[in-house]
Amino acid sequence: MSSRWSSLFTFCAVLCASQSVWAHGQCDESTGISGSIFQSDPSCKSDTGLVMLSIDKCGAFGSSISAGDACFDPNDTRFSNGYRDTVFESKPFLCYTQGGNTKGSWLTESRSATSSYISGPISSRMEDGVLHSSFSYEGLQIDARFELDCNVLKHCYSFTNTTSATISEIAITPYLDSDLYFGEDPILANDYGAAASGSPKTLWVFDGMTDDEVSSNPAPFIALESLDDRSLDSWEIGQYSEQRYYIEDISGGCAHLRNDIHWAGDIFDITSIVNVDRNGDLVTDRGYDVTLALRFDAGPLEAGQTSEICYAVRWGVGLPCSDADGDGVCFPDDNCESVYNPDQGDADGDGVGDACEESADAGIEDASTSDAGAEDAATADAGAEDAATSDAGAEDAATSDAGAIDAATADAGSVDAATSDAGDAGQVKDDAGSDEEESDDDSGCAVQPGARHNGLWAALFAFAGLTTLRRRR
Q1: Averaged pLDDT, groups of 10, the chain, 473 residues long
Q2: Whether 53 contacts 61, CB under 8 Å
Q3: Using CA atoms, how far apart are residues 293 and 371, in angstroms rounded to an integer?
Q4: Cα dihedral sign for 132, 70, 293, 320?
Q5: Residues contacting 350, CB < 8 A, separation 6+
Q6: What does the DSSP 8-state code read for residue 299?
Q7: Exposure of 420 in the CB half-sphere (CA atoms within 13 A)
Q8: Which phi and psi (to 5°) does residue 279 adopt?
Q9: How far apart are the first and last CA of the chain?
Q10: Are 171 and 254 in contact (CB under 8 A)?
């Protein structure tokens, strides 16, 4: 596409979007909504502000989604009085590969200017403030749940392979294109992006509210958050709508994100993509139409296997920078990036905040406690092993005693035979009767057969215990 046509396209996009400032900038409960409504509890207002949104059964929302808009009241007169629009579109892209074939779809009930969507039946229910939905895509059964807690909207997707073959790759990529309309004179496409330096990975969009540079004062934001980085594959801060097209392009397989902060001069020309974090502070160098994306891997999945991915969208007010712990100190100046420590205390002057050192010490203490517990468990295991050995010895002793009884019985038989040979038949009969009574008494009082039986069970239990211990190790 020539630069002239590209510029014309950009102008039209900005012009159309500019009209939406007035159509969607103000937001209230009468805004057209067709999805399931979430609204913050009023008790959240003083701490986090209030969120009101409508979400479709697949988890998509925003002013371009048929379900309805997402609105935020930061409860701060510096920015607005009441709810304002915040999201153009937020939706996850599902991609999977099986047998070398890759397929993908946006998880949304409507096309929403895209070529793919969930068109099959979707069942849903609202229960205790949680929206549950179930639907299928190709060979995947998808069970989802969505919940708003004050200013945090949590998404969870459970994927089950209903086919008879392995699905080698399952990727879900939540994509968020915000439109923040705060301040007295909202400026379109002038938002700033930021990324957390550590884990869990968090990406922010801040309302720029100025035309030249990001302010050093707090600003309203919307964030995309990983809830478990173990399944996080990649991330990026990009631009509308280059990032969206990049995510849904499965010609080379499921797209891996670029782990960077960039801007595209021409959304149709990948060579126009440039780095917009030249000073490395994890904040965009200027404002533009920022978009966010995280890719999570839920596969591979064997036939019948299930895995789950969760992430969150959060609204708030904060410094427009990389400040994962929200203590008002930005990366790279924060001496403890993962723990809230606005005082930045560093008693030993080693450059690591006391809060982080205390957290590390607590972790070491927990590990020591765990090790002690493991040592106790090992001692208990050793005791169990000794008991098993003792039981085995008891069984051997019981066997030996039983052998002795058998031998004694055999000897008694020899005595009977010898007595019979002596020719005193009546005396022999009386002696034989006495011997039989003595044998019965020995069997009852010594209880050897019973003891042998109990020893055998003890040995079996001991063997099972040892087998279990070996499996645990």
Answers
A1: 42 41 52 73 95 94 88 89 91 96 91 57 94 94 98 98 97 96 74 92 87 70 96 97 94 96 81 91 92 98 98 95 82 84 87 84 59 56 53 48 44 42 39 38 32 39 39 30
A2: yes
A3: 40
A4: negative
A5: none
A6: -
A7: 9
A8: -95, 0
A9: 63
A10: yes
The pLDDT of residue 271 is 75
Q: Where are the beta strands (DSSP E) in 56-129?
A: 70-73, 84-85, 87-98, 101-106, 123-127
Residue 25 burial (C-beta neighbours within 10 Å; 0-12, 13-18, 19+)? middle
Give the torsion through C-alpha atoms of 463, 465, 468, 473, to 10 deg: -100
Q: Which of 410, 401, 398, 416 is nearest to 458 (CA)?
A: 398
Q: What are phi and psi of 140, to 5 degrees?
A: -115, 130
How many CA atoms within 13 Å lie on the side-chain side of 384? 16
The token pair that represents 424 in the structure block: 């005193």
The strand order across the sheet containing 219-226 reads: 123-127, 130-137, 140-149, 152-161, 306-318, 219-226, 202-206, 192-195
- Give the span between the Cα atoms of 302 and 168, in whole angstroms: 8
Using CA atoms, how far residue 401 sits from 406, 428, 448, 451, in Å, is 9, 28, 7, 10
What SS3 state is found at 39? strand
Q: Which of 213, 206, 219 is nearest to 80 (CA)?
A: 219
Structure tokens belonging to residue 158: 């459970």
With tokens 């169990």, the residue in question is 384
Between CA 206 and CA 13 the distance in angstroms is: 21
Contact (CB, 8 A) for 298 and 201:
no
Round to whole Å and give the CA distance between 72 and 85: 7
Distance CA(168)–CA(254), nearest Å, equals 11
Strands, sheet with 84-85, edge to edge from the N-terminal-most edge strand: 36-39, 50-55, 70-73, 84-85
The pTM of this model reads 0.71
**Rounded to an integer, what distance in angstroms lies between the CA atom of residue 126 and that of residue 155?**
14
d(CA 38, CA 130): 9
Beta-sheet pairing, 123-127 with 152-161: unpaired
Write the CA distances from 234 to 140, 206, 214, integer angstroms: 23, 21, 26
The residue count for the chain: 473
Contacts 24+ apart (CB under 8 A), 332-339: 332/197, 332/280, 332/281, 337/196, 337/197, 337/198, 338/198, 338/199
Q: Among 373, 25, 413, which residue's Cα sits nearest to residue 188?
A: 25
